[in-house]
């Protein structure tokens, strides 16, 4: 099993504000959907709550929610009470890849446990005064390839680039 992480962040590493997305970038959303489709997506409970009901669970993906609350349950998702427990459940399965999709606390935990093999990071060329941030990591530990570069247009309020990071071994 490979552990991937996918995130979009602004120029100050901001990933969210008031438990919500801060920008409207349809092609980035399309990239997220296409990249995670058919895989397991792991998210924190606040991230799950921030997904509008009509989009929950995320279609064509196994939705996993991490919550410390032993009583939490969500329709269409599997609940684990920690990232380690979750990853050990999937490690022997036929699942080729699991995607950690946020939020901030889950990303921090993934780096702390050193379980991330690859990352897809959308770098949004703007600042949004976020209240949740993506952790700082050592870029020297990663091989970086730019996948897509998108300029501002009538449907995209900011330019952005998507980069694929693979762990150097």
Q: Give the low-confidence spans.
A: none
Q: Secondary-structure element order, as H and E? A: EEHEHEEHEHEEEE
Distance between the termini: 16 Å
- Going across the major beta sheet, what is the strand order? 5-4-3-6-1-7-10-9
Number of domains: 2
Spatial extent as radius of gyration: 15 Å
Shape: globular
Q: What is the makeup of the main sheet? A: 8 strands, mixed
Q: How does the helix and strand content classify structurally?
A: alpha/beta
Question: Mean of residue pLDDT?
Answer: 95
Strand content: 25-35%
Oligomer: single chain
Report helical residue fraction.
10-25%
Topology:
Blueprint lengths: L1 E8 L4 E3 L9 H11 L3 E5 H6 L11 E5 L10 E4 L2 H8 L6 E6 L1 H10 L4 E7 L7 E2 L8 E9 L9 E8 L2
Parallel strand pairs: 1-6, 1-7, 3-4, 3-6, 4-5
Antiparallel strand pairs: 2-8, 7-10, 9-10
Task: Give a written overview of the molecule.
With 169 residues, this protein is of the alpha/beta class. Helices cover 21% and strands 34% of the residues. It has helices at 26-36, 45-50, 83-90, 104-113; strands at 2-9, 14-16, 40-44, 62-66, 77-80, 97-102, 118-124, 132-133, 142-150, 160-167. The strands form two sheets. It has an eight-stranded mixed beta sheet, with helices on both faces. Strand 3, helix 2 and strand 4 form a beta-alpha-beta unit. The chain is globular, with a radius of gyration of 15 Å.
């Amino acid at each position: 099993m490979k552990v991937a992480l996918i995130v979009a962040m602004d120029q100050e590493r901001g990933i969210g504000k008031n438990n919500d997305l801060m920008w409207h970038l349809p092609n980035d959303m399309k990239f997220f959907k296409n990249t995670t489709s058919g895989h397991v997506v792991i998210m924190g409970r606040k991230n799950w709550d921030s997904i509008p009901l009509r989009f929950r669970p995320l279609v064509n993906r196994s939705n996993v929610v991490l919550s410390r609350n032993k009583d939490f349950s969500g329709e269409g998702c599997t609940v684990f009470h920690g990232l380690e427990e979750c990853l050990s459940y999937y490690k022997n399965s036929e699942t080729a890849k699991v995607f950690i999709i946020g939020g901030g606390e889950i990303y921090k935990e993934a780096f702390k446990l050193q379980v991330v093999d690859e990352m897809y990071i959308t770098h949004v060329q703007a600042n949004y005064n976020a209240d949740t941030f993506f952790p700082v990591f050592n870029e020297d530990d990663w091989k970086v390839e730019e996948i897509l570069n998108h300029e501002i247009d009538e449907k995209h309020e900011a330019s952005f680039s998507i980069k694929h990071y693979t762990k150097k071994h």
